[in-house]
Specification:
12-stranded mixed beta sheet; TIM Barrel; binds iron/sulfur cluster; single chain; binds S-adenosylmethionine; alpha/beta; 12 strands
Length: about 325
Amino acid sequence: MIDPFGRKITYLRVSVTDRCDFRCVYCMAEEMTFLPKAELLTLEELDRVCSAFVQLGVRKLRLTGGEPLVRRGIMTLFRSLGRHLESGALDELTLTTNGSQLARYAAELRECGVRRVNVSLDTLDPAKFTEITRRGRLEVVLDGLAAAKAAGLAVKINTVALRGVNDDEFDDLIAWCGAQGFDLVFIEVMPMGDIGGETRLEQYLPLSMVRARVERRWTLDDTDYRTGGPARYVTVRGTGCRLGFITPLTHNFCESCNRVRLTCTGTLYMCLGQEDAADLRTPLRQSEGDQALVAAIAEAISRKPKGHDFVIDRRHNRPAVARHMSVTGG
Ligand code: SAM
Ligand code: SF4
């Protein structure tokens, strides 16, 4: 699959549920209305769409959400998608998780062929953790991380940089990840979906400032390590920890974009930051064969936009897109 700008599409992210057991302040409002369960693709349908993408050339699949591990029966999907790893059609099956259920599932994920997990963790302070997630407990996530490590999963920590919230902890997070053998990626807040009272302008901290702050304590060596994603990596001298920066707002990364995103209702978004979408549920349900589905995917790829135009400043203090990150999947 090649899009109109010559980019090869080899990566599919799938939001398997919009639901979550946390309500992170930058991601969701305190009171969220989730989709009626009847609207969701079944696990079998998710498997069919993912498999069609694999057949069309996708080499990497990431399940995300919402919280992927709270979807009932989700291990069935991991297990069945694992067959594409065995056949060599897929290079990587992975997930992004808040870690709350990892203690339970880490070993099984490994059995299904998962080798790496991204775990979101914005602070190492238990009280602050509960404040940010509104209902999570740090110790549960730390137990989950220990289980992931014990199961032999490589871990990458995702940390959203939040002004006045975790900006005093970057050094500690780097030291801790170094000690644990985890990679760490800092992310800028993106203007996606209404989050209630708080504004993203208050939360937003450009990563250029994060990097400058971190460099007061650590020496960062540039590397050309890439995961095919938007992060730019350095190595932290002394810890050997890889540190990545995802800067959708201060640095545009769309020129090398290789991905598209599927929601749990079967809508395909060709860009995280644009409204362009394609309905795959109708062709999926139209017939048992995949012909209509494959045609709909090809049509969608032919109109993948060039890029997003996220801006956060005083004049643009509103979400750039109405849907939350949990809908399209981060
Ligand atoms: N629940 C899982 C988790 O938290 O890892 C997976 C879904 S979550 C939407 C994926 C990632 O998106 C997380 O690392 C989260 O921190 C990030 N995220 C959510 N809303 C965001 C926003 N508005 N700006 C930047 N990152 C965001
Ligand atoms: Fe849930 Fe992840 Fe969003 Fe936090 S960032 S509310 S854990 S989906």
